[in-house]
């Protein structure tokens, strides 16, 4: 069975790091690098399967504020793609706040590429299943209205 290509919006302030991670992910991943503030304007008619949000190397304490602001931007609707966050700091309180705010998962930077591939594929599957569920619910509602 051939694996689907996962479309990833990788928001990082460091293009060199972004390029390195993008190449390391390799086949099966279509990575678009972008600035977090402009990710919504990146090309892609159907959008992305997931967002990789790089918060590592931010000044102490800025990870939470920046992370919460960016998560709010990316998780505007139920149909928004899942967001995987990368951090330097493994502070449990910070990790919990980011997950409570909508992060699908939080990984340490630099990431273990095998783990990152696995997490991005899982996030992609979740996004696809949630989309299918929304579509099925809409179809059921239409059928009920037509019988009604």
Describe this structure in words.
The protein has 148 residues and is of the alpha/beta class. The chain has one domain: Rossmann fold. Helix content is 46%, strand content 19%. The chain has a five-stranded parallel β-sheet, with helices on both faces. The termini are far apart. 31% of the residues are buried. The model has no long low-confidence stretch (mean pLDDT 84).
Main features:
5-stranded parallel β-sheet, 46% helix, 148 residues, alpha/beta, Rossmann fold, globular, 5 strands
Overall pLDDT: 84
Structural Rg:
17 Å
Task: Report the structural category.
Answer: alpha/beta
Unreliable runs, pLDDT <50, ≥5 residues?
A: none
Can you write the helix and strand succession as a string?
EHEEHEHEH
Classify the helix fraction into a percent range. 40-55%
Largest sheet: 5 strands, parallel
CATH superfamily grouping: Response regulator
- At the fold tier of CATH, the topology name is Rossmann fold
> How many structural domains can be distinguished in the coordinates?
1
Cα(first) to Cα(last) distance is 42 Å
Tally of DSSP β-strands: 5
| Gross CATH architecture | 3-Layer(aba) Sandwich
Strand fraction: 15-25%
> What is the approximate shape?
globular
- Our count of helices gives 4
Q: Which CATH class is shown?
A: Alpha Beta
Q: Major sheet: order of its strands?
A: 2-1-3-4-5
Q: What is the element layout, followed by pairings?
A:
Layout: E1 6-11, H1 15-25, E2 29-34, E3 50-54, H2 62-74, E4 83-87, H3 92-100, E5 103-108, H4 113-147
Parallel strand pairs: 1-2, 1-3, 3-4, 4-5
């Amino acid at each position: 069975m051939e694996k689907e290509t996962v479309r990833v919006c990788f928001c990082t302030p460091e293009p060199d790091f972004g390029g390195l991670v993008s190449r390391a992910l390799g086949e099966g991943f279509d990575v678009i690098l972008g600035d977090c503030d402009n990710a919504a304007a990146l090309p892609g008619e159907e959008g992305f399967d997931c967002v990789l949000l790089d918060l590592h190397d931010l000044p102490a304490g800025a990870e939470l504020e920046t992370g919460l602001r960016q998560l709010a931007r990316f998780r505007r609707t139920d149909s928004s793609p899942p967001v995987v966050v990368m951090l330097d700091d493994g502070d449990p309180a910070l990790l919990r706040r980011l997950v409570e705010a909508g992060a699908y998962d939080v990984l340490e930077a630099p990431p273990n590429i095998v783990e990152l591939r696995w997490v991005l594929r899982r996030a992609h599957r979740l996004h696809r299943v949630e989309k299918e569920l929304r579509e099925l619910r809409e179809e059921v509602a239409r059928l009920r209205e037509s019988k009604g």
